[in-house]
Amino acid sequence: MMESQIWFISGAFLLILGSIATVTGPGVKDPIIRTLNTEVAAVGISLILLTYNHTLALLTYIAASVIVSMILLRLIVRLDEMGVEL
Amino acid sequence: MIAATFVPEYTASIFLPALYVGLITGFIALFGISIQKNDLDVLILTDIIGLSMLVIVSAVGTDLAEALILPGLVVELAEIMAISELLLTREMRKLEKDGPLLPNTFKLDMEILNTAPNFIAIILVLYGVFLTGFTGGAIAGAGILFYAISKKSKGLNINIFDGIAGISGIAWTLWIIGFLTFFIVPQYWLLSLLLAAFGILIKVALKMGLIGIMNREEIKKE
Question: Which of A36, B13, B76, B184 is buried most deeply by CB count within 10 Å?
């Protein structure tokens, strides 16, 4: 049972670690680093979806998370270009 | 135990841990939102709250969970897109500046910039049509959007978005007709299945055309 449970446990660990890192991790004053920290949690949730055999959900989540980080990075760069204090 | 007859025993055995993981993640993210002052940081933390929703839904472990995750993801995506536009527009109004929606144009004279976008867009659209349904629509739409953005960033004029919104509306009615046929005349289930599948393929693919329409409206304003 350990073989299949290790995926769930490591996924849950990465998810909680990633959310803590996003809230109060090293260097979260910079929004870009905060956005990149969410990727740790994204890997965690991918492992959890893998445990449940949710193939379609996993594929769609990978696509959606790429688009979300693209939107966030574009927003940060545009705000930075306009000279807004972040 | 009724759950064990519908879902695998292993899935039922990790239901409670998964629920707790989702709740802990949501709690951490909400705590982070409550101590933040900056709107941009709050938007990034909203992403984490979406993740905790995904864990709780996927803990159900049946096909129902998979069917519920897809709309949840799309709603989260639309929400983040809308709020990011809102933040940008507010800052633009404050500073009284304006700018294009898509990336700025740049001039580069490379052979690969002429040939690669067409090839990648064709592959994506063909693969999306082969998949059909929701995922296929998303992939084909990504192909169309990729083509439009790569043409735009080379400085070319794109006016292909005029009819796209209308076709998207027609595809939506196809989807609804397919659903109605399911309930009214169930013996034509294959027809209604195909109507629904291709309707949602076209609709999701052409949703990406909306981004082009938004861009055109911004050009008109100037």
Answer: B76
pLDDT tens for each residue of A13-45: 999 999 999 998 888 888 889 999 999 999 999
Q: Which of A52, A56, A81 to mutate to test the interface with B (most CBs of B within 10 A)?
A: A52
Min distance B132 CA to chain A CA atoms (Å): 13
pLDDT over threshold 60, residue B62: yes
**Taking 80 as the threshold, does the pLDDT of residue A64 lie above it?**
yes
Enter the DSSP assignment of B8: -
Sign of the four-CA dihedral B16, B67, A22, A8: positive
Residue A22: closest CA among A49, A53, A45: A45
Per-domain residue ranges of chain B: 1-97, 102-222
Size of interface A-B (CB pairs under 8 A): 135
Contact assignment for B87 to A75 by CB distance below 8 Å: yes
Residue identified by tokens 């299945």 is B193
Looking at domain B1-97, which CATH architecture does it have? Orthogonal Bundle (1.10)
